[in-house]
């Protein structure tokens, strides 16, 4: 019943929610595929030649087992956090009401998205530094950069979303003041 009402009153938000769900599912599939192939490659090193979409870390696995585990763990955490951002966005779009858009729960979710985006940026900075360190020591990391993304974009997004959350908090205060005066 709730879904039907949302479709009738806020069809634009529901369409955006469907798109966000699609991206979320895609990121979950990517994270799950990398995790499955990572675990499988520990028992069958040939799998490391094509972990996900052509990612070949078989040389790194042969050179150093622990660096291989570290690199794939970092990739898994980053893709998992990206999926988590979209999960939070889904929660926002399912709970928001355009008639009374400001609520503590929505404000908290927006703030959480900003925090997670900044965490991803910091993790990407650390990860890229680690990858450069490995390259300087002669480890082979073919096409690994395409799986990490840019730290600057996530840092900028996190700062912008955090600023939006502050504005949203102010809107929440104004809305509650207006409800008290009516």
Automatic annotation (TrEMBL):
Entry keywords, A to Z: Membrane, Transmembrane, Transmembrane helix
Indicate what this protein is called per its UniProt record. DUF2975 domain-containing protein
Q: Which domain of life is it from?
A: Bacteria
Q: Is Transmembrane among this UniProt entry's keywords? A: yes
Q: Which residues cross the membrane?
A: 12-40, 65-88, 109-131, 151-168
Q: Indicate whether Transmembrane helix appears among the record's keywords.
A: yes
Which InterPro entries does this one have? DUF2975 (IPR021354)
Specify the species: Belliella marina
């Amino acid at each position: 019943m709730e879904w039907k009402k949302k479709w009738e009153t806020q069809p634009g938000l529901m369409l955006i929610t469907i798109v966000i769900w699609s991206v979320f599912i895609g990121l979950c599939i990517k994270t799950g595929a990398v995790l499955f192939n990572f675990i499988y490659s520990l028992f069958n090193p040939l799998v490391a030649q094509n972990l996900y979409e052509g990612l070949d870390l078989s040389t790194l696995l042969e050179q150093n087992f622990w660096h291989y585990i570290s690199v794939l763990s970092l990739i898994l955490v980053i893709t998992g956090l990206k999926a988590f951002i979209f999960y939070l966005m889904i929660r926002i779009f399912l709970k928001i009401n355009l008639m009374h858009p400001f609520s503590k729960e929505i404000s908290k979710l927006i703030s959480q998205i900003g925090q997670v985006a900044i965490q991803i940026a910091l993790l990407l900075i650390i990860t890229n530094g680690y990858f450069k360190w490995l390259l300087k020591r002669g480890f082979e990391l073919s096409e690994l950069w395409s799986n990490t993304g840019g730290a600057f974009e996530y840092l900028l997004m996190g700062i912008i979303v955090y600023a939006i959350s502050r504005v949203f908090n102010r809107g929440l205060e104004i809305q509650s003041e207006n409800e008290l005066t009516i």
